Amino acid sequence: MYITSKHVGYMFTTITSKPGRAAVSRPPIIASWVLMDMWHHLDTPDQDHQIGALQHKIYPSHSYHSMSLELYHTTHNAGQTTVVLIHGALVSGLYWDLVIPHLPKSYHLLVPDLPGHGKSQSTPFSIDLASHMIAQLIRAHAITGSAHIIGHSLGAQVAIRLASTDPDVVNSIFISGFGMFPRTSITPYIPYAAWAMSRVENCLARPLISWAMDGADIPHIDTDLCTLDLCRQIVAPEEPTEWPVPWPARTLIVAAGKGGLIPTKDSSRDAVKLVEIGRELNDETVAYTHLGMRHPWNRQAPRLFAETAEAWFERMELPGGFVKL
């Protein structure tokens, strides 16, 4: 759906945005990467499977779900250091299946499905509710009552909100794909495009997508879970996402740097602004880009993604290829 979504994206090039407006976050389905990338720049000088339908069969895990009182989540490993992995929009915790095997076995992993997603679908999504429920999850299940946090795309927004509102449960943070997007007159229509294009995208052969995305393993979207209501809650929320307030946790912010014909690079400008906010309370917070990585680099280079997380959490030198912003 690269061509289709890019053509639709051109509809937005006549819209002008104004600084200071509230913003919404980027859903990470391929179609929406293209749509949102064009929208954002208005303000700038394995085998086929379905997310949400897979069961974890590759490595041992345990699942917990208590009605709507707790997010559905899986756990992995019996380590003494808890790490929470927060996925992006319109997928589920299963999106981490390529990264998990490369993380140290000494890490006790909590992998939730965000509200409105996967097996937490019955709970409506909002950034505030998601961060609140993850804080509850950490207090209930983290080994020491706190955790390191990994967040990708929409999950990066949730991670920063969590660190701002519940700093006691956050040790350090590694996020990638954070982006803020101006709210314009076309914002109410974006959910319809995201909903439709996720269905068109599923018609494309996975090998074609993998080739176009430098080897990224992009699974099918489960269209039963990718509802129009969920798209609205994410892309055009009633209370638009604002820039976060400063938070105290030491944070690594990564902006994927590879774009080109398929505009899947993250906003370095947003990463720089976010690091400025974060450094108000912790001068160890930093931002980097990697020119070889695309937005979904947890699916493109999962070993590198895991090694980057470990290096940050263990205060080691980052792997090669990263450039400081």
UniProtKB/TrEMBL annotation:
Gene3D superfamilies: alpha/beta hydrolase
GO cellular component, one term: membrane
Name of the protein this chain belongs to: Pc12g09450 protein
Residue ranges annotated for the AB hydrolase-1 domain, each copy included: 83-306
Example GO biological process: monocarboxylic acid biosynthetic process
InterPro entries associated with the record: AB_hydrolase_1 (IPR000073), AB_hydrolase_fold (IPR029058), AB_hydrolase_sf (IPR050266)
Naturally occurring in which organism (per UniProt): Penicillium rubens (strain ATCC 28089 / DSM 1075 / NRRL 1951 / Wisconsin 54-1255)
Recorded GO MF terms: monoacylglycerol lipase activity
